[in-house]
Amino acid sequence: MPRLDQELLRRGLARSRTHAAALIAEGRVEIEGSTASKPAAQVTARERIAVSSSGSEYVSRAGHKLAGALEALAGIAVEGRRCLDAGASTGGFTDVLLRRGASSVVAVDVGHGQLASNLREDPRVQVHEGLNVRHLHPSDIGGRVELCVADLSFISLTLVMAALSGATEHDGDLVLMVKPQFEVGRERLSNTGVVTSDSERLRAVGNVLCSALDLGLKIENVVPSTLPGQDGNLEFFLWIKVPNPDSVPRIETGRDEVVAEWLATLARTMAEGR
To answer: How far apart are CA 230 and CA 71, in angstroms?
Structure first.
């Protein structure tokens, strides 16, 4: 069985084993509802482990990613909106949305028992566990939301774009994190699971953009994540708008040109950030 500090790192609840030890020392880590006291405590993969938030630190590293994206993607409204956090896991994205004034957050995850206890107990959070967003229907979550955010692993966003956009109201927004390691295919990954080629990264983003445009969605912006993935993968955030079909005509042509323009802009942003 792994040590608690190792399991915190593996689940993305801590940035390092040193950070994990600090969280435990602060009394912020619970195992099956009981406060943990030792980094070396033995745990199983099935045990529920939760980390409570404190001060400005979000319940997981992912929270800092979304917070950075919302700053970069200026203009996305959160306050007062009903939101969907697809692939909620420990709740980093949910935490950010609540702190920015979301009226409620539907936290959906295919797994069980990962959401931080303080979020699980928050009356503004509706928890839906064991729900695969690939098959998500608005009726599963009590109707469409105004803002959808997503942090998904082991599945391509191209496979869930229809479900996520379908669960979002017309004139609503999607903020989706693109993880190239789950978009390019195993044969294009390095031995460490990291996508190291800029061309492959851009190809991954391009595929997701194409899937959105094919559904008649509008691309508002695309930016690199302010933090890399746990293994060092460079990730990206897409801001997508769900147009109102009664007021915005669907664009039937020019998809490849639109994608090429966005990828060129993204490539320049990546180059300037180095």
So the answer is: 21
